[in-house]
């Protein structure tokens, strides 16, 4: 590590520790801080169209706010958003809208979510510093500093008629950090501007393999890291040639100017190439630490339905610690993880104003909302946010469970997206229940499930769940029987529905290898960012269903 890198790491560590202590201090006074945030948002936006409509100057506390301003969903903002997109100011927020973050489109039409300089700064500071400060306290190995491999991009998908850039929320966040990226991550900025995922992954790997002292790998989702190692398995001989010569393979379709810039940043490393080649020839179990001995952790969202990817990831990383750093949405940061190998998140009281709807009231016309200090451990709620980008009492439609408190701030575990429940006769089978049943089935049969999704088959009088599963084994005879058993255990209401003949036994179709990659490509075609692509666990989109149906491998009734 050079003197410059040592100095930067020292400054980074100091800043991370500062923001960590700030975060802890805020959680000790969570309700007070959260009310302060609400007051600031209302005061700053009194002269906006929305602020005048709801008489913000007359709102003096959170009780007034919840009485005057209704709970909202995205359709309530569409006309405002189009005005902002056309260039109008002071519509939802007094701050200029710098960027529209596009939702992933996984569960429906893409939404344009306004992003201001203030909201971007909040996200950047928490992702860049606070989460690293937390990590330094939770995992001593993270204190060594050093550079990491970042699997994100800076792609901009377009510009509105008023000149506002659009793209994924994560792409916008990475753009805001581009000045410091080369000091903390191995991939040059040019790689983060490549739209072809396979080419980008190849280059991410090439530059990471140059860095013997790599200390972490970071991506939004574990599926991206699994795909990265898949590219490594397929292309390592060519990667070693490139590492040896210090020149990128001519087979890679790159623009001449991009190739020239990247080649200039490579150095021939024949000895390292020879040493790494021997590691590849020894197999893939635990390959990550054999390539990078100082690798301390992997950072990605590991809970909920993403758990299906963890077994395959562990093959490469051999149970490296996993830090599920951030729980957030394009609309707002929700929380930060304070523990390793746990997908639970402490609400960040200084990032937005939060309310919570008890699940028993989610479908009522006027649901009650609770504040940070009013939640019960073990209960589940839908999250509502008021942010610095012009969304007020906005229902995220994320359902979370409160697992405890960190000082005065609740600890949340993601459960499911509202509307993503499998539900035929009131049984409401959650994404988490399906994931548990799928995981237990795979474990019982000693197979690896690459990916899965489900839909409701309502063709007959009594409906049933229809699963599409991609698995790496031919020994699938008992899969349906086991999945049925474990799903009944995970959701007793589903079992009662079967016993009462209100639900028919489930159906499984096994699909060909690569089918779910085709779903990802379809999401990309619709405008989702590489950073956002995630497989929906309940599919009703006709195009998605057509892809699944056209790639069936085995039909199990």
From TrEMBL:
Organism listed in the record: Desulfitobacterium metallireducens DSM 15288
Domain GH3 middle: 345-417
Chain ranges of the GH3 C-terminal domain: 434-542
Pfam families: GH3, GH3_C, GH3_M
GO molecular function: acid-amino acid ligase activity
Name this protein carries in UniProt: GH3 auxin-responsive promoter
InterPro entries recorded: GH3, GH3_C, GH3_M
GO terms for cellular component: cytoplasm
Lineage: superkingdom: Bacteria
SUPFAM superfamilies in the cross-refs: Acetyl-CoA synthetase-like
Residue stretches in coiled coil: none
């Amino acid at each position: 590590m050079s003197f410059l890198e040592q100095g930067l790491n020292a400054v980074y560590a100091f800043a991370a520790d500062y923001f960590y202590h700030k975060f802890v201090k805020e959680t000790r006074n969570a309700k007070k801080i959260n009310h302060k945030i609400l007051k600031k948002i209302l005061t700053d936006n009194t002269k906006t169209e929305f602020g005048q409509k709801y008489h913000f100057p007359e709102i003096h506390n959170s009780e007034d706010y919840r009485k005057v301003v209704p709970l909202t969903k995205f359709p309530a903002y569409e006309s405002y958003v189009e005005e902002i997109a056309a260039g109008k100011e002071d519509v939802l927020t007094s701050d200029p809208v710098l960027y529209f973050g596009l939702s992933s489109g996984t569960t429906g039409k893409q939404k344009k979510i306004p992003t201001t300089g203030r909201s971007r700064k909040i996200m950047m500071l928490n992702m860049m510093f606070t989460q690293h400060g937390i990590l330094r306290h939770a995992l001593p190995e993270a204190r060594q500093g050093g550079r990491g491999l970042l699997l994100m991009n800076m792609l901009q998908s377009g510009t509105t008629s008023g000149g506002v850039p659009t793209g994924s929320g994560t792409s916008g966040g990475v753009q805001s950090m581009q000045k410091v990226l080369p000091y903390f991550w191995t991939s040059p900025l040019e790689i983060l501007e490549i739209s072809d995922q396979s080419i980008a992954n190849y280059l991410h790997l090439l530059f990471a393999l140059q860095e013997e002292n790599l200390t972490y790998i970071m991506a939004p989702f574990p599926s991206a890291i699994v795909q990265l190692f898949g590219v490594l398995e397929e292309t390592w001989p060519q990667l070693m040639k490139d590492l040896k010569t210090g020149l990128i393979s001519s087979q890679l379709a790159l623009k001449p100017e991009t190739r020239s810039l990247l080649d200039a940043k490579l150095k021939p490393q024949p000895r390292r190439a020879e040493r790494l080649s021997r590691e590849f020839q020894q197999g893939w179990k635990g390959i990550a630490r054999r390539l990078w001995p100082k690798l301390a952790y992997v950072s990605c969202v590991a809970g909920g339905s993403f758990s299906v990817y963890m077994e395959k990831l562990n093959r490469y990383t051999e149970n490296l610690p996993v830090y599920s750093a951030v729980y957030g949405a394009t609309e707002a940061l929700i929380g930060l993880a304070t523990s390793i190998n746990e997908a639970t998140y402490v609400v960040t009281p200084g990032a937005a104003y939060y309310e919570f709807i008890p699940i028993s009231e989610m479908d009522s016309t006027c649901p009650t909302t609770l504040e940070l200090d009013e939640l019960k451990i073990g209960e589940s709620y839908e999250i509502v946010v008021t942010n610095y980008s012009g969304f007020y009492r906005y229902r995220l439609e994320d359902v979370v469970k409160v697992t405890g408190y960190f000082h005065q701030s609740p600890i949340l575990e993601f459960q499911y997206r509202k509307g993503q429940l499998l539900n035929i006769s009131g049984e409401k089978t959650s994404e988490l229940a399906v994931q548990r049943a799928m995981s237990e089935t795979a474990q019982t049969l000693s197979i690896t499930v690459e990916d899965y999704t489900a839909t409701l088959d309502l063709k007959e009088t009594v409906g049933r769940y229809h699963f599409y599963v991609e698995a790496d084994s031919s020994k699938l005879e008992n899969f349906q029987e086991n999945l049925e058993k474990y799903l009944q255990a995970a959701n007793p209401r589903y079992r009662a529905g079967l016993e009462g003949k209100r639900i028919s036994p489930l159906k499984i179709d096994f699909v060909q290898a690569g089918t779910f990659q085709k779903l990802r490509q379809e999401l990309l075609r619709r405008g989702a960012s590489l950073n956002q692509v995630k497989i929906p666990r309940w599919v009703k989109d006709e195009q998605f269903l057509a892809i699944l149906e056209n790639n069936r491998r085995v039909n199990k009734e």
